[in-house]
Design brief:
Rossmann fold, 6-stranded parallel β-sheet, 10 helices, 15 strands, 26% strand, disordered N terminus
Amino acid sequence: MKPRVIRSRAGISGEVRILLVGFGFMGKMHAAVYRQLRGVSLAGVVDPRIQETKKHLRSMQMDAPVFRDLESAKSVPCHAVDICLPTDMHAPAVAWAAGHGKHIFCEKPIALNLAQAGKMIQQVKRAGVHFQVGHCIRFWPEYQALEKFIASGRGGRLLSLSLQRRAARPQYSQQDWLNGSRRSGGAALDLHIHDTDFVHHLLGKPRSVQSIGTQDRTGWSHIFTHYDYPSVAVTAEGGWNYPTGWGFQMAFQAVFTGGTMEFDSRLNPSLSVVLGEGKKQAWPFSSPKAGRAQGAGGNVSSLGGYHNELASFVQSLRSGCKPKVATGSQAAESLATVLAEIKSAQTRQAVKIPSRGF
C-alpha cells in the first residue's frame, strides 16, 4: 500500500495522529503528553522491544499498535512522526519521514554535525512538511517567564545572565547510548545545548565563545562557556559528571539595572525576583497542569516544558502554519555554537561563530 500523505495548507481539522518513534526515556515523556492533549492520539509506536512497549502503553492506559521498525509502520495513517531516537539515528529517521510526506518533530540535538543537520533541513524543505526540534527550554515555564520579564522592562536593562545545567551521570538510556560520545556527543552536545539554545533564543547568535571543560569516556562531560555579546555578560555551564545520587539541577540568574530574577529547579518556589531595594519574592509563572510521566525515569518529571512544546507543534499542524520556535534552522544554529564551544575547549582559544545560514 502506498503511504498516505496527509498535507493541507488549511491545517488538520480532526484528530491529530502521531507515529511515535522510540519508546525510551523521552519517548515515554512524549507519550504521556499526547495522552493529555485533546484531539491527539498515537497512530502507533516504533520500538524493537515490542512486548515491553505494549506492556508500558497498557500501564499508561494507552492503546496503539507497536512496530519493530519504520518500514513496518509505513502504511499507518498518521499526520506526523515524532522521533525520540538516539542522536546518531535522527538523520535517517527524518529522511524517512520527509520521504513519506509526514510532518516531523525530532528530539534535540538535531544531529551530531552540521553536514547532517543541513541535509535534514533540505530534505524537510523539499517535502514541504513542518519540522520542529525538541529544544524544550524555549517552552519551559520559568524560562518563558524570564523572556517575558526582559521584554516588560520591569527590571531595567539586562546586565548579565548565567545558566547552569548539572546532572548525575545518565543511567537510563537504552544500551547506555548517552554515555557513548560517538552517539550522543557527550554532555556538551546532549545536556548543555539546552542552555546554549536558550541563549540564542533570547539574544541571538554570539560573536564568539570561549570554553573550558573536562573530558572522560563520555566525551566532554562538563563545559563552561562565555558567550561574547556587545552589552550583556553571558555564561553557561553544563555537565553530567556528578555522582549517581546527586540528582539534577537547572538554574539561571539574570541581573538587571533594577533587579534580579533567579530560577533553581531544586527550590520551592523555583522562581524569585528582587526589584530595586525590595525583598526577594516568589514570581508567578504560567505552567500547564501536565502532571508527571509514568515510568519515564530521571529526576525532572514535570511535563510543563514538554507539554508546551508538543502542544505548540500540534497547534502548528492544526493551523497549517509552520513552527516559528525551535525550528530546524534554529536547532542547527545552536548546534554550530556548541560545536564551536567544544573546539574552544579543545584548543583553549576563543572561537568565532560561523555566519552560515541554514
